[in-house]
């Protein structure tokens, strides 16, 4: 039993880490926010992300998976997510002239970062598809060992996210002293462009699915 739980934990950790390493909206905003809010950014973003994943696991166990893979749900999330990311990206670009380096906030607004982690996960249609397919498969396998199996799966999964995002925030926060205002604006501008690219990709995916299905 213990060996099986350890195996579930380790395989879940590796699978989640491979996904966490891939660029996405959540990672992009973590990079931009870590430069001004410090190392705590990653853990707080992942806390919000983890809350949503925990709720989704409960929903999947309650039979929500068929709903999440519906074409109309994918189209809606893609278009809504694209709109949110486009707004965030363009807002960041417009604010570039006023962006200057400052010391990380001594007590950053944790609620904003937690909500950001939750929202950026929710508006990503591919995150939902992953959970409704690969994630659900892992959950079903873990259920063979009861609640302990699901707990081992979730702990391995969220700890991989936490480890990577904490490392990213730490690296950005510790290296911020090497950034002048010019490089800082380039970093924020690059993150904004990435968000706009993700927005366009989400909208394209949603429109393309709608054209071929409806």
- Residue-averaged pLDDT: 87
State the low-pLDDT regions, or none.
Answer: none
Helical fraction equals: over 70%
| Strand portion | under 5%
Q: Please count the helical segments.
A: 9
Distance between the termini: 48 Å
For the CA atoms, what is the radius of gyration? 18 Å
Structural class: mainly alpha
Number of strands: 0
- CA-based shape: flat
Please tell me the total number of domains: 1
Order of helices and strands: HHHHHHHHH
Instruction: Give a short account of the largest sheet.
Output: none
Oligomeric state, counting identical vs distinct chains: single chain
Describe the structure.
- The protein has 214 residues and is mainly α.
- The chain has one domain (2-70, 100-188).
- The protein has 9 helices and no strands.
- The chain has helices spanning 2-20, 25-37, 41-61, 65-68, 71-94, 110-122, 125-142, 146-175, 181-213.
- The radius of gyration is 18 Å and the shape is flat.
- The protein starts with a helix and ends with a helix.
- The model has no long low-confidence stretch (mean pLDDT 87).
């Amino acid at each position: 039993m213990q060996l099986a739980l350890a195996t579930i934990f380790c395989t879940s950790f590796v699978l989640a880490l491979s996904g966490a390493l891939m660029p996405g909206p959540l990672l992009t905003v973590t990079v931009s926010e870590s430069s001004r809010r410090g190392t705590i950014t990653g853990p707080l973003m992942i806390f919000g992300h983890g809350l949503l994943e925990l709720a989704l696991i409960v929903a999947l166990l309650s039979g929500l998976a068929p709903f999440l893979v519906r074409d109309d749900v994918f189209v809606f999330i893609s278009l809504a997510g694209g709109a949110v990311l486009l707004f965030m990206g363009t807002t960041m670009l417009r604010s570039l002239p006023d962006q200057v380096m400052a010391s990380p906030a001594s007590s950053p607004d944790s609620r904003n970062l937690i909500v950001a982690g939750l929202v950026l996960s929710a508006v990503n249609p591919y995150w939902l598809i992953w959970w409704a397919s690969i994630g659900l498969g892992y959950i079903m396998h873990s259920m063979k060992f009861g609640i302990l199996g699901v707990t081992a799966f979730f702990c391995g999964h969220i700890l991989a996210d936490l480890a990577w995002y904490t490392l990213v925030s730490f690296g950005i926060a510790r290296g911020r002293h090497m950034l002048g205002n010019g490089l800082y604006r380039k970093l924020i501008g690059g993150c904004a462009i990435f968000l706009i690219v993700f927005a366009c990709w989400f909208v394209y995916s949603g429109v393309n699915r709608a054209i071929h299905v409806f």
